[in-house]
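// run 5 | inverse folding | seed 20
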């Protein structure tokens, strides 16, 4: 059973504005404390960045990125109930021009993006999808970060249950110091800058 709620954006030109969310078993918005810590850490990388918000839900992460200076956010979501809320949030906040929705199953994304790659990829999969170090979310993160989805010098951030162990990133990616916030943790993978 899902229920509607709202969260407030923490910073930037949309600070204090609310985003409607749907909460339930399959839908779990990133907690405010974790979201604020994430964006405080990303403050330098987010300016003028092209951001991919995978498992976007209400769009809070992609919208917060725009609020903090990102150039564009692409939001991937497939849940029909959540898509209605996502579209309403973009319209209410007037960010439809900067935020584009891809209605897709994230686990079925092709190896290459439909357009250019991204500077920051935010991966917030449903916690029930985790089942060991190389779970479906890890496999997806590996595909996105290793392929053309993540630009050279880019950063992929994945939220996961603290009780889970996450395997090391594949070659070409470097694990940066992660963070634990109670039962939620964040992992950061960076892609080496191009040598050309």
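// decoded
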């Amino acid at each position: 059973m899902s229920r509607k709620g709202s969260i407030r954006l923490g910073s930037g030109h949309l600070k204090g504005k609310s985003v409607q969310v749907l909460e339930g078993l399959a839908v779990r918005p990133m907690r405010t404390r974790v979201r604020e810590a994430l964006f405080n850490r990303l403050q330098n990388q987010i300016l003028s960045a092209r951001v991919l918000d995978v498992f976007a839900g209400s769009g809070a992460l992609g919208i917060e990125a725009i609020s903090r200076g990102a150039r564009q956010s692409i939001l991937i979501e497939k849940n029909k109930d959540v898509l209605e809320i996502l579209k309403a949030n973009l319209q209410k906040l007037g960010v439809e021009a900067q935020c584009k929705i891809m209605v897709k199953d994230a686990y079925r994304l092709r190896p290459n993006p439909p357009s250019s790659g991204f500077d920051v990829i935010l991966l917030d999969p449903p916690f029930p999808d985790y089942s060991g170090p190389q779970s479906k979310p890890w496999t997806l993160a590996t595909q996105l970060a290793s392929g053309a989805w993540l630009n050279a010098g880019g950063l992929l951030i994945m939220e996961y249950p603290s009780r889970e162990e996450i395997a090391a990133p594949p070659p070409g990616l470097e694990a940066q110091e992660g963070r634990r916030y109670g039962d939620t943790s964040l992992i950061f993978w960076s892609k080496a800058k191009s040598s050309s």
